[in-house]
Amino acid sequence: MSTQGHTWVRQVKKEDEEEDPLDQLISRSGCAASHYAVQECMAQYQDWRQCQAQVQAFRDCMSEQQARRREELQRRKEQGSAHH
């Protein structure tokens, strides 16, 4: 009589099945194109100093998005307190 050992198979998620939380955040921000531009530049030059225009564009986009988000939260807060 031979023993077969384990008969179960572990289910492993493929990497492409679940998006990275950082990628999700960037996608929701509307700044994905400028983020990809930074990544492409870094892949090409492998030196962030060569990519300052792309880095600045991404930084500006994210700053604008954060300002819009703060304004939206402030509006919601004011609307919520107006109902009380």
TrEMBL record:
Top-level taxonomic group: Eukaryota
Region called Disordered, residue ranges: 1-21
Gene Ontology BP terms: mitochondrial respiratory chain complex IV assembly
Gene Ontology CC annotations of this record: mitochondrial intermembrane space
InterPro entries given in the database record: Coa4-like (IPR039870)
Name of this chain's protein: Cytochrome c oxidase assembly factor 4 homolog
Native source species: Equus caballus
